UniProtKB/TrEMBL annotation:
<feature type="active site" description="Nucleophile">
    <location>
        <position position="331"/>
    </location>
</feature>
<dbReference type="GO" id="GO:0042242">
    <property type="term" value="F:cobyrinic acid a,c-diamide synthase activity"/>
</dbReference>
<protein>
    <recommendedName>
        <fullName>Cobyrinate a,c-diamide synthase</fullName>
        <ecNumber>6.3.5.11</ecNumber>
    </recommendedName>
</protein>
<dbReference type="Pfam" id="PF01656">
    <property type="entry name" value="CbiA"/>
</dbReference>
<comment type="similarity">
    <text>Belongs to the CobB/CbiA family.</text>
</comment>
<keyword id="KW-0169">Cobalamin biosynthesis</keyword>
<keyword id="KW-0315">Glutamine amidotransferase</keyword>
<dbReference type="InterPro" id="IPR029062">
    <property type="entry name" value="Class_I_gatase-like"/>
</dbReference>
<dbReference type="InterPro" id="IPR011698">
    <property type="entry name" value="GATase_3"/>
</dbReference>
<keyword id="KW-0460">Magnesium</keyword>
<keyword id="KW-0067">ATP-binding</keyword>
<comment type="pathway">
    <text>Cofactor biosynthesis; adenosylcobalamin biosynthesis; cob(II)yrinate a,c-diamide from sirohydrochlorin (anaerobic route): step 10/10.</text>
</comment>
<dbReference type="InterPro" id="IPR002586">
    <property type="entry name" value="CobQ/CobB/MinD/ParA_Nub-bd_dom"/>
</dbReference>
<dbReference type="GO" id="GO:0005524">
    <property type="term" value="F:ATP binding"/>
</dbReference>
<comment type="function">
    <text>Catalyzes the ATP-dependent amidation of the two carboxylate groups at positions a and c of cobyrinate, using either L-glutamine or ammonia as the nitrogen source.</text>
</comment>
<feature type="domain" description="CobQ/CobB/MinD/ParA nucleotide binding">
    <location>
        <begin position="12"/>
        <end position="188"/>
    </location>
</feature>
<feature type="domain" description="CobB/CobQ-like glutamine amidotransferase">
    <location>
        <begin position="249"/>
        <end position="432"/>
    </location>
</feature>
Length: 450
């Protein structure tokens, strides 16, 4: 029986957020892809901003590995399935290495252990020299279920500074793999809890600059060598999708205003019907014959003026919803279906008007956390992340119980207005699409003319 091939695969983690692991991840993805390698990116946790950037840097869809929203088996199958066609896997961690929803449960360390892949620690060494030794020793030895094999240092400006860091690595048995200098050209501005998606930022130029610089100070050959690990056997994902009695024509909003999607969710939708993508910013109407509309999250507040100015699209969606069209909108999608959207300065922009509510960015306040939605004898998990506030002008909440990671009820209703469903929660149905299937099994929507 042939042995399982070895491939370079590793999880990039950090002692804490703000260490620069996303920036380093993007540079590594592009630098390795330049070598002709098929590089598969992954992201620990529920983040949909970093996966967007990963996809652009690597040229392959980045996949979420989240041990709260999905099972260990699903994460392992997702990883093995995508890794089968790749030469190298780069998994970006979340927060600090051991930070999970409950102690280290669901943390980057948990993911590394479940996948059996080594860890590379990214350390912000701006104000640190040999004192990094006890930090590395602690992260290496704290939990025996992971293998911390190397370190890359960020914000290191001189070779002499790196010399002290390299000595610390050698004294604690962690391979020193190089450093990234502090360079303004490498900075991608942050927005809320992730990197910004502002279209004015020259992302491609930043990623290219990172890929140019990394091979000068990071030993990529050694990185690939020390992280070679037996590749997992490809397996069918642990996904439950029932056969649809009749093909559905599914319209999914996808443009600069609506980018917060989980790739596995989109794959599940593709198994339930024919998926067509459209742009609420640029298109004049919904795709012909739409009978299920999915409006994912995003940053509609950044594009409020353009969304409002596209009156033809707003009218098309409003007519679809008023005619009994089946729709599911989450977070940014909910904001778009409301009556008005107020930006941070209080300027009001007309939205679709399918839902009796207004959302506002005035006095923005963060709402964040894992969510479990229990509805109609179904349980589906997701993640809530928004700064906008909702003014309810007659929304109808569905009989659902929404709780946080600790099981405590939270005010994040699942709304229903006719055949339009909406919530601030970004749901994950990539493992089990029973929630979406239940919506599709409801009252038949009125199809739009061809």
């Amino acid at each position: 029986m042939p042995s399982t091939p070895e491939k370079p695969q590793f999880l990039l983690a950090a002692p804490s957020s703000g260490s620069g692991k996303t920036t380093l991840t993007l540079g590594l993805l592009r630098a390795l892809a330049r070598r002709g390698l098929v590089v598969q990116p992954f992201k620990c946790g529920p983040d949909y901003l970093d996966t967007h950037h990963h996809t652009q840097a690597a040229g392959r869809p980045s996949l979420n590995l989240d041990l709260f929203m999905a099972s260990v088996g699903h994460a392992q199958a997702t990883y093995a399935d995508a890794m089968a066609a790749a030469d190298v896997a780069v998994v970006e961690g979340v927060m600090g290495l051991f930070d999970g929803a409950d102690r280290m449960r669901g943390s980057a360390a948990d993911v590394a252990e479940q996948l059996g892949i080594p860890v590379i620690l990214v350390v912000n060494a701006k104000a640190m020299a040999y004192s990094v030794a006890p930090l590395l020793f602690g992260f290496k030895n704290f939990y025996p279920g992971i293998r911390l094999v190397g370190a890359i240092f960020n914000f290191v400006n001189t070779a002499s500074h790196y010399h002290f860091l390299r000595e610390a690595c050698e004294d604690v048995g962690v391979e020193p793999l190089g450093y990234l200098p502090n360079n303004p050209a490498f900075v991608i501005p942050s927005r809320h809890l992730g990197l910004s998606i502002d279209t004015a930022i020259q992302y491609e130029a930043i990623v290219e600059a990172l890929a140019d610089a990394l091979p000068q100070t990071v030993d990529l050959d050694r990185l690939l060598a020390v992280t070679r690990t037996a590749a997992p056997a490809a397996a069918a994902p642990h996904t439950t999708v029932a056969a649809c009695p009749a093909p559905r024509r599914i319209a999914v909003a996808q443009d600069a205003a609506f980018t917060f999607t989980y790739h596995r969710n989109l794959q599940a939708l593709a198994r339930l019907g024919e998926v067509t993508y459209f742009s609420p910013l640029a298109d004049a109407a919904l795709p012909p014959g739409t009978d299920f509309l999915y409006l994912p999250g995003g940053y509609p507040e950044l594009f409020a003026e353009a969304l409002s100015a596209n009156e033809a699209m707003r009218a098309s969606i409003a007519a679809y919803c008023a005619g009994g069209g089946l729709a599911y909108a989450e977070c940014g999608g909910l904001m778009y279906l409301g009556q008005h959207l107020l930006d941070a300065q209080g300027q009001s922009f007309s939205m679709v008007g399918a839902l009796p509510c207004t959302t506002s960015m005035v006095g923005a306040k963060l709402t964040l956390g894992y969510r479990t939605v229990a509805w109609n004898e179904l349980t589906v998990k997701g993640h809530e992340f928004h700064y906008s506030q909702l003014a309810d002008h007659g929304l109808t909440p569905a009989p659902a119980l929404i709780t946080n990671a600790k099981g405590v009820a939270v005010p994040a209703p699942l709304y229903r207005q006719g055949n339009v469903w909406a919530s601030y929660v970004h749901l994950y149905w990539g493992e089990n699409s029973a929630f979406i299937e239940a919506l599709l099994a409801g009252p038949a929507p009125v199809a739009q003319p061809e």
